[in-house]
Write a structure and sequence with these properties.
The complex is a heterodimer.
Chain A lengths: L5 E2 L4 E4 L5 E3 L6 E6 L5
Antiparallel strand pairs in A: 2-3
Chain B lengths: L6 H7 L2 E6 L3 H11 L5 E3 L4 H5 L7 H4 L2 H12 L16 E6 L2 E7 L9 H13 L11
Parallel strand pairs in B: 1-2
Antiparallel strand pairs in B: 3-4
The chains are: A mainly beta, B alpha+beta.
Chain lengths: 40, 141
């Protein structure tokens, strides 16, 4: 059985590279999201 | 960040990539530059994405598995230095396929050495690009 889809509505984050505010719930159309653990 | 090695496949699918970390934006900008990461690198200090997608904080025993230790041993054997972590080492990462603001596939990890393969990740991306196999498939009820 497919897993439930998870809406990312309401998650608004700062892009460290550009400084832009990114609303994950508004896009992008198709993407891989990779969440890293921590920095060294 | 092996995703970068398959940039042409991303482009062919009309897809992009987004990295998320819980460090401050300037620290992630430095990391993105170090890695040559050309996509957004989002700062999530509240770990909203981690919680929403179910990427857990593990116990110390689950973090320091034999596989995790092997990763560090291999780095040392290859002469790569691995500085001490500066942040919460118990927070696990993960991956997901996003379609217009919705995670249609989520790959969680049980330990740091338990990451989905890039092949499986791109297979899921291709599936998502092809669209749902049946109306409403996977829709949350």
């Amino acid at each position: 059985m497919p897993e439930p889809r998870t809406e990312l509505t309401g998650i608004v984050l700062v892009d460290g590279c550009s400084g832009d505010i990114v609303d994950l719930g508004a896009g992008p159309p198709l993407a891989i999201l990779t969440a890293i653990r921590h920095r060294h | 960040m092996q995703v970068l090695e398959r940039r042409s496949e991303l482009d062919a699918l009309g897809a992009t990539a987004v990295a998320v970390g819980f460090s401050p934006p300037d620290a992630l900008a430095a990391l993105a530059e170090h890695l040559g990461w050309p996509f957004p690198f989002l700062s999530d200090p509240e770990r909203s994405v981690f919680r929403r997608l179910g990427f857990p904080v593990a116990t110390r025993a689950r973090v320091w598995t034999e596989g995790t230790k092997a990763l560090y041993r291999r780095a040392a054997a290859e002469g790569r230095s691995v500085p001490k972590p500066v942040e919460d080492t118990d927070q696990l990462g993960g991956d997901a396929i996003l379609v217009a603001g919705t995670a249609v596939r989520v790959f969680r990890t049980a330990s740091p050495d338990d990451r989905v393969s890039v092949d499986d990740l791109f297979a899921a991306l291709r599936d998502a690009a092809a669209g749902p196999s049946e109306p409403g498939a996977g829709t949350e009820t």
